[in-house]
Design goal:
By secondary structure, this protein is α+β, with helices and mostly antiparallel strands. It is about 30% helix and about 25% strand. The N and C termini lie far apart (about 40 Å).
């Protein structure tokens, strides 16, 4: 049984459920990609899979069920990998949990203008005000989005920040996986 609080909508609940799951695995984890499927549709069309996922006895029928996908390749930049994804019609949305280093807005003015790529990554990693953060971002086909942010230094379920526009670039990249060419 999940400890995820009841959220206002199914996407927020799915994002928080993924955050809780990934949090249980500890820090320093690779990025994890999830398909989000309509729970009622999953029960109706794939009852044996729903049973294996433990969805048979849950009373809620308006939720989304996260299904973890194969491991994300580490040798390819995340944005390039996401550009290769196309989801089948049965997938209502997707979510990604990824860890990153972030700087507070006050440190942005300190970033040397001539740094990029590996040099910028190294500079951020050595900055005294850096924060380790896990971002879990979910999007639906209709453009709805939500996210959860968890700081490593405040790693408790009550300190998870949620909102639809916390990680707009990643939400855009995930939304693009549903665009038809």
């Amino acid at each position: 049984m999940s400890n995820t609080p009841m959220a206002a909508n199914p996407l927020t609940r799915a994002v928080l459920e993924i955050d809780e799951y990934v949090s249980g695995l500890g820090w320093d984890q690779p990025a994890r990609l999830f398909a989000l499927v309509d729970t009622a549709r999953l029960r109706a069309e794939q009852p044996s899979l729903a049973d294996r996922l433990g969805l048979g006895e849950e009373p809620e029928s308006t939720g989304l069920t996260p299904i973890e996908q194969d491991e994300i390749p580490t040798g390819k930049p995340l944005d390039e990998f996401l550009a290769t994804i196309a989801w089948p019609d049965a997938v209502a949305g997707c979510a990604l949990a990824v860890e990153r280093l972030m700087l507070p807005p006050s440190a942005e003015a300190q970033v040397p203008k001539d740094l990029s790529g590996a040099a910028l990554t190294k500079w951020v990693a050595e900055h005294p005000d850096r924060q380790e953060v896990r971002m879990t971002v979910g999007v639906l086909r209709d453009g709805t989005r939500d996210s959860a942010l968890r700081l490593r230094e405040k790693d408790t379920p009550t300190e998870v920040l949620t909102g639809s526009d916390l990680v707009p670039g990643l939400a855009e990249a995930l939304s693009a996986t549903f665009e038809e060419e």
